[in-house]
Structures are given as C-alpha cells and as structure tokens.
Amino acid sequence: MQTERLKAYAHTLLTTGVHFKKGGTLVVSTDVEQKDFATIVTREAYALGAAEVVINWRAHEIAKERLLHASDDVLSQPAPWIPTYYKTYVDKGAVFLSLISANPYAMQGVEPNRIALQSRHLNKVLDFYHEAIMGSAVRWCVAAVATPLWADLLGFTGTDEEKTDTLWERIFTLCRIENVTPEEAIDAHLARLAKRTASMNTLNFASLHYTCPNGTDLTITLPEGHIWQGGSELDKYGTEFDANIPTEEVFSAPQYDGVNGIVYSTKPLIYQGNRIEHFHLTFKDGKVVDYDAEVGKDYLTILLETDEGARYLGELALVDHYSPISQSDTIYYETLFDENASCHLALGAAYPTCLKDSDGLSKDELKARGLNQSLTHVDFMVGHEQMKIIGTTHDGHQITVMENGRLQL
Predict the structure, then answer these.
(1) CA distance 61 to 359
(2) pLDDT confidence of 1, banded at 50, 70, 90?
(3) Cα(367)–Cα(327) distance, rounded to whole angstroms?
(4) What is the dihedral angle through the alpha carbons of 342, 343, 348, 352, rounded to the nearest 10 degrees?
(5) Transmembrane stretches, by residue range (predicted)?
(6) Does the pLDDT at position 248 exceed 80?
C-alpha cells in the first residue's frame, strides 16, 4: 500500500474525524499489529502541530492470557493507573482516536464469567470516561485498519501484503475517500446525512414501529425533546467532529421504558471477542424480558447482566439498506462496518446529546427525562431488505420512514 495514500487516510481521520487542533494532545488506542499505521498517524499529527501523541497499545493475545490465568482478585480490581491515565487526558482536553480491526475469535475459549468479571469492574472505574465520550465532552473517532487476519476473514487471497492491500482498497471506498464520485465523497455524504437528520427533527415523531418478515415487530417511543443526529456532530464547545468513519446512520435515543415487542438480529454481534448470532430480544415497558441466541447465548447473557440498564435500549439508528457497505454484501465481523450496513439498536446507555437542553444534567435527571443509564453501550444490527418503519407524529399522523429497507426521508 502506497504510503501517501495511508497518509491521506490518516489526515482524514485527524481532520474530519477528531478535528485535531494545533497544540493539542492526541490519544491513539491501537493494536500492536497496527503499529505501522499508528506510526503514520503519529507523524501526521505532529505535522499538524500536535503537542503530544500518546499511544495506548492493545495486544489481544496477552489480554486473553490474563483472562485465562489471572486471579479473580486481579480481574475485579483494575489497576489504579488505568482511570488515572484516562482522567489525565480527559482533563487535558485531548482527542481520542481508536483504531480497530476485526478479530471475532480473539477471546475464544475464555469462560464467559471471567470476561464479565473484568468488564464489569473496568466499566465502573472508567464510568467518567464513557460519560465524556457519550456527552461529547471530548472529541473522538473510531476508524479501521487493514490486517492480514481481517483480510482472511473476508476471503481475500494472495500474499499477506496483497490481501491486506485489497482490504485497504475496500476501506478507502467504504469510507468514501477513494473510488467515489464527488457527489458520493465524504464531505458531500456528511452534508446529506445532516439534511436527513434535520428532516427527522422537523417531524418530531412520538414513536416508530418496526416490522419485518423475519419476525421483528417492535414499537419504540421517543422521549419528549429527543434529537436526531447524523454524520458529523458538535462537541460541547461547538467544534465539529465525526465519531465514526465510515458512517451511514442517523440516530437518536428511545424513551427507555417505552419499547415493546420483539426484534431479531440480522448480522453477527462481536462482543468481548466472541460471536453472538441469530438472536432475538423481547421487550416489555422497555426492558428485555426474554431472549435467545443460536450462537453465543452465554455472552448475550453477560451483556444483559452488566447492570440494570443493559436490559434497556439507549440508541436507535436508521441506515438505508442500500448504503455502500450493505451493498458490498459482506459481513465484516466488526461493528463499525456492520452497523453502518444496517439499521441498528444499542443496549445500554443513551447519548445525552440526543436530548435537548441536556448539558449539565445528572444521570438521575437524564433518566427522569427518558434516557437510559448503563455502564455499557453495545450496538446490534436489525436492518433487513424488507424492513418497514412507520413513524407516528404527536397528532397521530403516520408517515413511512422506511419501506423495503430504503429510507424515505
């Protein structure tokens, strides 16, 4: 892969993604296998005037060994430096870039209760960081890096270099950076998402009703004062950034206790390095009261038992079934891509930015206005080529939002 093309991609992540500013601090979370691209990002950030670039390295193999062999006391007591590390950079006003690659078997063979133990306690000590992300108190972006393992998962062939280059080409196209017309390029696309968001906000639906031949029949009430967002967004200080590259969604928050019916997943969910597939959830007054999965039910149980809020929804997102990612007809085994190929929902915490006049409200105040609170936030895909969504306005009018998988607004 030509270095100049990777530099251009890194530049997009830093400018359109986290909207990096001269003199700022960049925190990059990345796998050790991604070191070459992480180096390019680092150089590009310093070229843009960074005061500091901090790398938070991940190694799945080492993380797995810890889960397999460390004592329960170790897993339940995160090291004090972990929250200190994140608080240092949140307080400093750093921007956060997370580089990801698919690895759906990373934690295969680890007992589910071990994963749950570590995750539960780590989420507690990093609650302030998740609040900063969810509330756009910091700018952040999640983006992809091609790896041989991911290329193998997708069936690409050749040498490691050849198949990784093929995956890079796919990433550049789906991120709308290369191989697209000016009308489909990233800036024009973000502008269209902004218009769709404005339409949804103007209609101010009271509820949305999802139906699909696969069995989905779900009604989601929207809280008073909800806001739809899509494409780029503003941090709490008014600076624009794009939290996901690629992105195809417009999203909002449901009334946490206003979800009723059943919904079926349509793509695999990779959770804590394990696959959950062909699952369904039944909701009553917002809460999951029944569920099952053909693959990974134990891990679905772990997710739902994170805390009380994990059994409620915190996000609903609309994605046209005919988006480029969907039309690539590929399961990417990575939520960043799979969620942008499909309408999706999220179990767990809601984004406070999806509610008018929410800045400064406490968790209890946000919940009183309808937003779910949780230590987790996990997207799962429900979109389908035959999905229909009908919106009902506050005066009872019904408007088709989606027909046969295609958004009408």
Answers:
(1) 40
(2) low
(3) 38
(4) 120
(5) none
(6) yes
Q: What are 129's two structure tokens?
A: 């960081």
Whole-angstrom distance, CA of residue 371 vs CA of residue 349? 8
Condensed to tens digits (0 to 9), the pLDDT of residues 312-358 reads 999 999 999 988 898 888 989 998 998 898 899 999 999 999 999 98
211 beta partners: 217, 388
User: What CATH architecture applies to the domain 3-174?
Assistant: 3-Layer(aba) Sandwich (3.40)
Digit-coded pLDDT (tens) for 355-375: 999 888 999 999 999 999 998
| 54-63 b/e (C-beta count within 10 Å ≥ 16 → b) | beeebebeee
At 57, give phi and psi (nearest 5°). Answer: -80, 140
Structure tokens at 130: 């998740």
Question: What is the DSSP secondary structure assignment for residue 383, as one 8-state letter?
Answer: -
Q: Could you give the C-alpha distances from 358 to 236, 348, 354, in angstroms and in order?
A: 11, 18, 8
The terminus-to-terminus CA distance of the chain in angstroms comes to 39
Helix (H) or strand (E) holding 8: helix 3-12
